[in-house]
Amino acid sequence: MDDHPLFREGLVAAIDLDDHFTVVAEAASGEEALTEAARTAPDLVVMDLGLPGLSGIETTRQMLIAHPHMRIMVMTMSEDDDNLLAAMRAGAHGYLLKGALREDVLHALHTVARGGAVFSPQMAERLSALFAACGSTPAREAFPTLTAREREILDLLAVGLSYRQIAQRLCVVDKTVRNHVGAIFSKLQVHDRAAAIVRARNAGLGPQPQ
């Protein structure tokens, strides 16, 4: 979803070269994006922030309310901290800066489609700095309802491990990890892994800035 036709055409061409993706719709405004999302129900959306009319952030928020299982990756020129945080609060699963190489864009799309979260290196550094500036709360105090095992799994999620890697680390089956993750989502009142990671890192879990 982007209001610049040339950028949109280039992005569509790049995505169409990947056999794993099929472009089902394009939109030039937030309102059009919501209409197309309702019509085509895509699994993955690439969202610009600078849309005319309804902003990309508000479009993301409304889209995920209507389609909670949809995955949305923001792709924008904006390196603004407020936009980064607003996009994450709206539920975006990734934040990539325009100008990224084609292979980086496709890698990001695959990661987000699989349930991961992706940020441009510059934005990941900003995110860590923002969390550090806000200070951190010990995880046990921040999430008192989590069990010790749930807190351990949340920490490993924040490090960036996949469910399978966590299962191998804890010597349990994948289903056990997914059951714990479901409980974590419920207790943290989040809807996906990306949001849980944000909450975890904000509380001091996972990799911390040096």
From TrEMBL:
Keywords (A to Z) from UniProt: DNA-binding, Phosphoprotein
SMART domains given in the database record: HTH_LUXR (SM00421), REC (SM00448)
Origin organism lineage: Bacteria, Bacillati, Actinomycetota, Actinomycetes, Kitasatosporales
Species this chain originates from: Streptomyces anatolicus
Residue span(s) of domain HTH luxR-type: 139-204
Protein name per Swiss-Prot or TrEMBL: Response regulator
4-aspartylphosphate sites (modified residues): 48
Signal peptide start and end residues: none
InterPro entries assigned to the protein according to its UniProt record, in alphabetical order: CheY-like_superfamily (IPR011006), NreC/VraR/RcsB-like_REC (IPR058245), Sig_transdc_resp-reg_C-effctor (IPR016032), Sig_transdc_resp-reg_receiver (IPR001789), Tscrpt_reg_LuxR_C (IPR000792), WalR-like (IPR039420)
Superkingdom classification of source: Bacteria
Pfam families listed in its UniProt record: GerE, Response_reg
Start and end residues of each Response regulatory domain: 1-113
